Amino acid sequence: MAIPNVSSSSSPSSSHQWNHDVFLSFRGEDTRNTFTGHLYNALIIKGINTLRDDVDLQKGDEISLALLEAIEQSKISIIIFSKNYATSTWCLDELVKILECQKSIGQMVQPIFYDVDPSNVRKQLGEVMDMHGKKFKDDIQRVLRWKVALKEAANLSGWHLNNGHESDFIQRIVEEISSILMKRTFLDVAKNPVGLDSHIKAMSELLSVGNDDVRMVGIHGIGGIGKTTIAKAVYNYFAHQFQSCSFLADVRETTNQSSLVQLQETLLFETLGMNTNLKVGSVDRGITIIKERLCHKKVLLVLDDVNEVEQLDKLARDKNWFGPGSRIIITTRDQRVLDYHGQVERKYEVQELSDANALQLLSWNVFKKSYPEEGYEELTDRVVQYAKGLPLVLVVLAPLLCGGSKLVWESIIHKLQSSLNKKIYEILKISFDALEDNEKAIFLDIACFFKGENKDDVTKFLEASNFHAVHGIQVLIERSLVNVGNKLQMHDVIQLMGRNIVHQESPNEPGKRSRLWSHDDILRVLMENKVRAL
What we know:
The chain has helices at 28-31, 35-45, 65-72, 89-105, 118-135, 140-154, 166-183, 196-207, 227-238, 251-257, 260-272, 283-294, 309-316, 335-341, 355-367, 377-387, 391-401, 406-416, 422-433, 437-450, 455-464, 469-478, 492-503, 519-527; strands spanning 20-25, 50-52, 74-81, 108-114, 159-161, 215-220, 244-248, 299-303, 327-332, 346-349, 483-484, 488-489. By secondary structure, it is an alpha/beta fold. It folds into four domains: 20-183, 3-Layer(aba) Sandwich (Rossmann fold), CATH 3.40.50.10140; 196-349, Rossmann fold, CATH 3.40.50.300; 356-417; 430-503, Arc Repressor Mutant, subunit A (Orthogonal Bundle). The strands form three sheets. The chain has a five-stranded parallel beta sheet, sandwiched between helices. Strands 7-8-9-6-10 form a five-stranded parallel beta sheet, with helices on both faces. The chain has a two-stranded antiparallel sheet with strand order 11-12. The longest helix has 18 residues, at 118-135. The termini are far apart. InterPro entries: Disease_R_plants, NB-ARC, TIR_dom, WHD_ROQ1-like. It holds the Pfam family TIR. GO terms for molecular function: ADP binding. It comes from Carya illinoinensis (Pecan).
């Protein structure tokens, strides 16, 4: 049984409150104690949080505010069309609300035609609406809303039961609903998301989800800049518009620890459904299965933290692997991966947070509100200036600062000027470790000596020292470790990471380090007569 397609002009928010998995809309006198009762019990047994409007909630002709809110808070609405469904004003008000939620928050709508044909539902429009029109002649707009909603819902693709095996039918519905819910589970974006709206808007323009072409869009930038957070937010925002979705997190780390086969199997499991238990066996076989099984599906796929072209080749080598309308989002620290792949035509470089957003992010994580506590304004501003718009720094430092006195803040800020927090250091160093030896040497030279210097002058100097500086600096730019205008620039935290690497070569004996930039260290070495050459 194919999952019915549902389209929507709007998108849900990851912050929308979903209190129920499924809402059942049905005509009580037709199916409450038969089909609907059996379906409800089967959904509950499966662990699916299901709400039905019990008879004691129905009072008069007006639908209750509590029930309207319950519909809004349900991920999926199942409409059970039966013989007398359209005679109930209560059911029709539910139907209007359900279709509004489909458009406004991306709620999925699944009709079931229980011993009625969709054409019969459409036929009810005339006679039933005439009856309602007479009863509600003073509220004709309400009747018109019912008429439009009934016509729209009758045209939705759904499930049909006509004198079939009810138990088997219910079981198939429960399995599909379970599969749909798995795909529509929102990703946890961030504890305190700040400034994501502008990123979602920019990505929306690059993705153009409404078009039928297949697009690959890259998100690149320095480590800790928020690429994964943005990808998660975009995934949550658009997932409801696709038949199948998959978010493959930590591709780099997963590849290092296991193999690409595991990633291929995860991709197939998430896009083909819960009952899929494909054992790929080999990477080449996995490629064939992905192409054959997904080429007709509209897929949203996120490949997070990719660091090698080979990973893309085995997971999403070509656009024709996926069906019309598919979108593949790739996050990486290395822009070259996107360029070399050859299929990524649109790229989004993540920029540092503005000071205002950085202050808000730090405040939410430290003070649990959008602004600093009184008396901490100057201290928070110093932390924001230190972070230079890098979210990673703010989020990692927040637990150390939270609840601390001003003296504690002063101590931490002072320490940050000369050393890097271990967690920040380890995350940023991933980019350094991926460099070739020549590129590492150039990076360390820039971090220790050449930040802010003229690019051409530095290039000539390094080339004269037998470094392949032109290529090396370009690699550093593409990996977001260096920024270049006329001068070589580097994020302060990245520079501190580079200098820490050199310091770790010999923490206690500066003379054994490969580079010296501190006047105190240089003087100490000279005084101890440990300089081999100048």
